[in-house]
Amino acid sequence: MKPALLNSLKPYNIIIMNKLFLLVLLFLCACRHPAEKVSYPTRDYLVVGKMMDTIKPPYIVDASAGKKHVVLIGCDHNRDPKHPQFALIEQYFKKLKPQIAFNEGGQLADTSISSFRDGIIKHGESGALKYLSDRSHIKMMDGDMADSAEFGAMLKKYPKDKLFLYYVMERMVIPYVNGAYGKIPFEAFYTKSVKPWFVEPGFPLNFQEQRYGYFTNLYRKYVGTDFKPVITNDIERFDYLNSNCEFCAIGRASKMVRDSTLLSKIDKALNTNDRIMITFGQGHALAIEPALSQIVAKHH
Questions:
Q1: What is the spatial distance between Cα 237 and Cα 166, in angstroms, rounded to a whole number?
Q2: Strand-pair partners of 275
Q3: 3-state SS of the chain: helix, strand, coil percent to 5?
Q4: How many CB atoms are located within 10 Å of the residue 49 CB?
Q5: What number of CA atoms fall less than 13 Å from residue 54's CA on the CB side?
Q6: Stated pTM of the model
Q7: Taking the CB of residue 176, how many other CB atoms lie within 10 A of it?
Q8: pLDDT for res 38
Q9: What is the pLDDT of residues 15-38, one digit of tens each?
């Protein structure tokens, strides 16, 4: 090629090289800085607590935009077939005809539910939704965060001993004193449950820390009294709706982590489904109501 022609092409070569450099730079930046996690607008749980003083469950969140329609039944966790929330779950399910459903508390694989009433007695609102979903041949998916993921996220924020004490109170003691686990002595219930509920999902407890005495010692250390498996004023120190206690703040953080997971799953499900039904606790429903309306509108 002639020198004159080569000289005339130099500006174009420089432009092309500059563009290639910019493209490579943008690619490298994208690899090093992945997309940020979506943040959803939710209600503060202290506000939720004040709302729950005047609102009886169930609390219905009905969000629609165009073809997209999501119904969330905010439930009271009970297994009384006469509770009005179960009639509403059935009514909304028949009206909505959902294409997919989400429940709280883990994937429910029970295939032995023989009736709507049987589902309620065995699994509360999740059992009711499971029965309806199976009859309609749709999937009911776990809308909750896996315990292993929640434990990992929360252990980054709080000391292990305080976090374990909160979880035992929230997941075992409070339901137990309200009759959720029958008449088994609490120590026997704890001993039977600590491994599958905590150790196997990844909460880091050594052999000594799995013992009942470890929990009761933590209770005495942080509450200041000996533990008794009965309803006392000390339980208020673990109620996430209270504003002036350390363990209440841990509870609110746990709820917020789980709310983010549920909203993310709903957001993703709306990419391929128009109608979704969910049963979750009333507090969760009140907290995520603003975000749910925004997500549905986004998919319109």
A1: 10
A2: 69
A3: 60, 10, 30
A4: 18
A5: 4
A6: 0.80
A7: 19
A8: 63
A9: 444 444 444 444 444 444 444 456
